[in-house]
Design goal:
Elements lengths: L2 E6 L2 E6 L3 H11 L3 H9 L5 H14 L4 H11 L5 H17 L2 H4 L7 H10 L2 H13 L1
């Protein structure tokens, strides 16, 4: 399962989107497809709601009870510096797209660092193509 671990609120939490339904819930709650949402994060065109929904639904996917996830987001997601909360959400959405360091050990030898760097530059399609070409060589 693709997951991301980060300190949020009162300790280290696991965030994940293990089912299609959770990804669809994220899309429904934010009003954006997951690709558009990822692009919004890369271009700093996100809303506070986008950030909080990624964290809340990611917590639920990582095994936190829905009521507890809502409570954590209410207490620790609002009133904190946005850059701090965004960093958690960005890690979660990035793991959804590229996996995480824990997942990298299990994944095929796709160079994750190149994918992440290209995504940060905004050329995700070229990054994926280049990564697969590197693996084939």
């Amino acid at each position: 399962m693709i997951q991301h671990k980060a300190f949020f609120g009162d300790g280290e939490k696991t965030f994940a989107f293990p089912t299609r339904e959770l990804v669809e819930e994220l899309e429904r709650k934010t009003g954006h497809g997951v690709g558009a949402l990822f692009r919004r994060f890369r271009t700093s065109d996100y809303s506070l709601s986008d950030v909080l929904q990624v964290i809340r639904i990611g917590l639920i996917g990582g095994g936190t009870a829905p009521a507890e996830a809502d409570q954590l987001v209410s207490v620790y997601g609002v009133g904190r510096p946005l850059a701090e909360v965004f960093a958690v959400a960005d890690g979660v959405i990035t793991a959804l797209f590229f996996g995480s360091a824990e997942d990298d050990a299990d994944a095929a030898a796709i160079p994750q660092d190149k994918l992440r760097q290209a995504a940060a530059n905004g050329d995700l399609a070229a990054a994926i193509s280049a990564a697969y070409e590197d693996v084939a060589e």
